Amino acid sequence: MNRLAIKLLPLFAVMSFYFVQAQATFSPPILAPGFNQYTTAAKRNTLNTWVQWEYKRLSFLFLVVKNDRPDVLNRGTQLTSRVVDQQGVLKIAYLKQF
Q1: Which of 74, 78, 83, 10 is CA-nearest to residue 44?
Q2: Rounded to two decimals, what is the model's pTM?
Q3: 66 pairs with which residues across the strands?
Q4: Is the Cβ–Cβ distance between 89 and 64 less than 8 Å?
Q5: Which residues contact 5 (CB under 8 A, 6 or more apart)?
Q6: What pLDDT tens digit does each residue of the chain (98 aa) get?
């Protein structure tokens, strides 16, 4: 657990970051790492994961997915709601050898 102290006038606030990381590798060259991060001060949960597949020698297919879920406070009603932000990227790299 990493702690970061931020100076607020005249108080100090402590933010905590929690990380969980996992990685899996398979026999055809497929790599699937990812990690989850939770920030207590912002009440934000972020999941980052990607898959890398070497379908030919030195040729790769990458799929990256980010799932961000911050808690947002509605100042009018004083209620918090969870907003979901999902992003993805697909990349294909091909090397032609002569």
Answers
A1: 83
A2: 0.62
A3: 48, 87
A4: yes
A5: 12, 13, 14
A6: 445 444 444 444 556 667 777 788 877 788 888 888 888 777 788 888 989 998 888 889 999 999 988 777 777 777 777 778 889 999 999 988 88
